[in-house]
């Protein structure tokens, strides 16, 4: 079966996901038979009592397939399905990325290019274009952050997500994972693989197993069955030296390590490595998804089609962006303590101004009031602006924020009103209810006279 057939045949449509259809079939298709997981899922209790076996699996590990090469194939459809390498083509060049078709010839990352060409003389070699990969990466990460602010990027093409807070809005983790796979494919035209598990360690192993273009859920009660047959190299932190030490003890699989007394492991590897491996071998991994410092925020920004100097248009844009930020905060179950205004001038100089609120908010009215004060304080007169942005930082889970703070003056009533708008929007679509100021006023807003509000995000 060619890769494109796998891609097409495997992916669920949005309608399937919405109706939660055929996820189980897809999960089984995404993994090799005989690994102890597929049969476990078929026998799951879901149809009996509506329990899902991904209920205890809020951690997703997502990794793009053959990332650099897949980015290149977007503009080279003639090469889809062929062995393709991205890398330096000089005498000392090495393979940076290889399509799965190239991998069938034994080609892999870090291999000298000369050897790759010997293995597959017809292989097509493309030079790297890092600007392109950064751009696709930003698009993919934006999809992740649309699902949850709890995103821990590991490299350009992969991240951990904790989707605990997104379940009420988007459904069980496996459905969220399929939705992300569809969005990455629809919006960025590349495929990715997702592991869904109760810990980061297992989620990462699961995404690797699901590759390419697959999804694998490892329910908590299947972790040991999934993990123990794997070679010891699967354990995080096991490099060549540790592997040799384990081999000297006669330990080849993760199960062998799990069934060795911790004292023995500690004697061979030292206190910290010994106890660490003993825990991992039973699938115990306490690490939570870590959002990089400064990235835990929800923001929206807009580059004007041409530079704008009319304060009235800018205020209107700030109101709209405040709305967008508030809606995303509420959808994701967060409130923000700090409101940030970003302004980029026509000459690309960019400044930000921020204010920390007395109480955290997810109310657009309050975000706008703050951002508007920050904007007026700049005293810009008629400076020409290229972009404005609004961001909420210092996020707290709304459920953890003291309730009376949310109802604190002058917000009382606004939150409920905006929640009603959320419900109307969910039913009737975006733009069905909006502040009167966002309805086209005939002011030139730089968007060619089109009404401002109904533009899709
Ligand atoms: P990976 O995710 O490791 O690999 P991949 O996306 O090419 O393939 P897979 O389907 O197995 O995930 O790395 C992501 C990109 O990072 C890869 O496309 C090229 C780049 N990269 C390097 O620059 N140097 C390296 O040594 C490796 C492994 C990858
Ligand atoms: Mg990858
Ligand atoms: Mg990667």
Salient structural properties:
Alpha-Beta Plaits, binds thymidine-5'-triphosphate, 18% strand, DNA polymerase, domain 1, 3 domains
Describe the structure.
The chain has 457 residues and is α+β, with helices and mostly antiparallel strands. It has three domains: 1-223, Reverse transcriptase/Diguanylate cyclase domain (Alpha-Beta Plaits); 228-281, DNA polymerase, domain 1 (Orthogonal Bundle); 298-438, Dna Ligase, domain 1, CATH 3.30.1490.100. The protein contains 21 helices and twelve strands. The protein has helices at residues 3-10, 14-18, 23-29, 38-42, 46-49, 67-73, 100-103, 113-119, 130-147, 167-170, 173-188, 200-210, 223-227, 240-248, 254-258, 262-269, 271-281, 311-332, 364-378, 403-406, 414-428; strands at 59-64, 84-87, 95-98, 124-126, 151-155, 158-162, 192-197, 215-217, 298-308, 334-345, 350-361, 385-397. A five-stranded mixed sheet has the order 5-6-1-7-8. The longest helix has 22 residues, at 311-332. Mean pLDDT is 82; it is low at 1-10, 13-51, 404-409 and 441-457. Bound molecules: thymidine-5'-triphosphate (TTP) and magnesium ion (2 copies). One magnesium ion binds next to loops.
């Amino acid at each position: 079966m060619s890769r494109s057939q796998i891609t097409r045949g495997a992916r669920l449509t949005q309608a399937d996901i919405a109706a939660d259809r055929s996820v189980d079939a897809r999960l089984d298709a995404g993994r090799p038979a005989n690994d102890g997981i597929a049969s476990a899922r078929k026998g799951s209790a879901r149809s009996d009592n509506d329990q899902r076996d991904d209920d205890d699996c809020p951690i997703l590990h997502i990794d793009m397939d053959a990332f650099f090469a897949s980015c290149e194939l977007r503009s080279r459809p003639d090469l889809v399905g062929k062995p393709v390498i991205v890398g330096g083509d000089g005498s000392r060049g090495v393979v940076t990325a290889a399509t799965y078709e190239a991998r069938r010839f034994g080609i892999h990352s870090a291999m000298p290019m000369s050897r790759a060409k010997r293995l597959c003389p017809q292989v097509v070699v493309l030079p790297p274009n890092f600007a392109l990969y950064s751009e696709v990466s930003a698009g993919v990460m934006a999809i992740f952050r649309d699902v949850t602010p709890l995103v821990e990027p590991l490299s350009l093409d992969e991240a951990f997500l904790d989707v605990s807070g997104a379940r009420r809005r988007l459904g069980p983790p496996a459905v969220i994972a399929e939705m992300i796979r569809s969005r990455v494919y629809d919006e960025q035209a590349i495929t990715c693989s997702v592991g869904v598990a109760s810990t980061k360690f297992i989620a990462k192993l699961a995404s690797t197993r699901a590759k390419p273009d697959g999804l694998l859920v490892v329910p908590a009660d299947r972790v040991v069955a999934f993990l123990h047959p794997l070679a010891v190299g699967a354990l995080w932190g096991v490099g060549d030296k540790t592997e040799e030490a384990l081999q000297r003890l006669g330990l080849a699989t993760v199960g062998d390590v799990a069934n060795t007394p911790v004292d023995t492991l500690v004697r061979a590897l030292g206190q910290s490595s010994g106890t660490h491996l003993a825990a991992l071998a039973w699938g115990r991994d306490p690490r939570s998804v870590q959002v990089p410092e400064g990235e835990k925020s929800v923001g929206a920004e807009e580059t004007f089609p041409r530079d704008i100097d009319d304060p009235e248009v800018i205020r209107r844009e700030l109101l709209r962006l405040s709305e967008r930020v508030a809606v995303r905060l509420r959808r994701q179950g967060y409130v923000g303590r700090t409101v940030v205004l970003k302004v980029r001038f026509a000459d690309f100089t960019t400044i930000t101004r921020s204010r920390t609120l007395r109480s955290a908010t997810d109310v657009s009215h309050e975000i706008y009031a703050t951002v508007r004060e920050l904007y007026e304080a700049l005293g810009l007169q008629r400076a020409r602006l290229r972009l404005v942005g609004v961001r909420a930082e210092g996020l707290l889970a709304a459920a953890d924020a003291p309730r009376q703070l949310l109802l604190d003056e002058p917000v009382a009533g606004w939150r409920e009103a905006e929640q009603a708008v959320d419900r109307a929007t969910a039913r009737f679509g975006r733009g069905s209810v909006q502040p009167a100021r966002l309805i086209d006023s005939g002011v030139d807003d730089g968007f060619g006279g089109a009404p401002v509000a109904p533009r899709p995000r």
